[in-house]
Amino acid sequence: MKMNCIAVDDELLALKKIERFAEKIDYLNLMGTFDNALSTFSFLRENKVDLIFLDIQMDEFTGIQLLETLKDPPYVILTTAFDEYALKAYELDVVDYLLKPIPFERFVKATEKVYVRFLKDQNNQAPMPTRQQPVENNEHPEFTFIKSGNKTVKVYYDKILYIEGQRDYLQIHTEDSRIMTLLNFKKMQELLDDQKFIRVHKSYIISIDKIDYIENNTIKIKDKLIPVSSTYKIAFQNLLQKKNFL
Length: 246
Prior knowledge:
By secondary structure, this protein is an alpha/beta fold. It has helices at 12-23, 37-46, 63-69, 86-91, 104-124, 185-191, 230-242; strands spanning 3-8, 28-34, 51-55, 75-80, 96-99, 143-148, 151-156, 160-166, 169-174, 178-181, 197-201, 204-207, 213-215, 218-221, 224-227. The strands form four sheets. Strands 2-1-3-4-5 form a five-stranded parallel β-sheet. It has a five-stranded antiparallel β-sheet with strand order 10-9-8-12-11. Strands 13-14-15 form a three-stranded antiparallel β-sheet, with no helix packed on it. Helix 3 links the parallel strand 3 (51-55) and strand 4 (75-80). The model is unreliable at 126-138 (pLDDT under 50).
């Protein structure tokens, strides 16, 4: 599922940069770029937009003023060369705040944050099932996108076996592959469903559904033996009991 987005900036080079970045991310559909507020208003009246990359400092009409006039604004990522607007951005509930010049890695991180919210909102807006339809739990998206080297990789949650810490990076072990990412454990846990994934050791997050067996303080998943440390043991046991595994 793609997000429809636009970019608003009175600097042509800034718009071109966002165009290049958006082309590299397959869940973004950049519908257009605009260098003034008036043309942006006209476009928003006629088109459904999920995300705006919005510059703050523009002639005649600032990005903040534009945002304040929108009755039901889409997700917004502010872009600016100045950091004094951070508090105002927080007050307007924007998703992220990018300082120019924007590194690609920071751009990806911001769009991933929006995309997770977007998928959750789409699931929450799904129609209620009829009595003939099976009830599905759609509270968490089926997949996410992970930055790995120069690639942005789609990762399906139900294929993740476990996640292993390797010094300065994480290695995501799936049924099909291994994916290296510079995300830390905290950021990774924010992306995961805490009813299906749990940290059991300072170096491991596991998928509850992929456990083959548990023996003493060791978990077996495929060919991997994963230790359960005392720090995480109680939380792990509580989750197992909650899911009637114990």
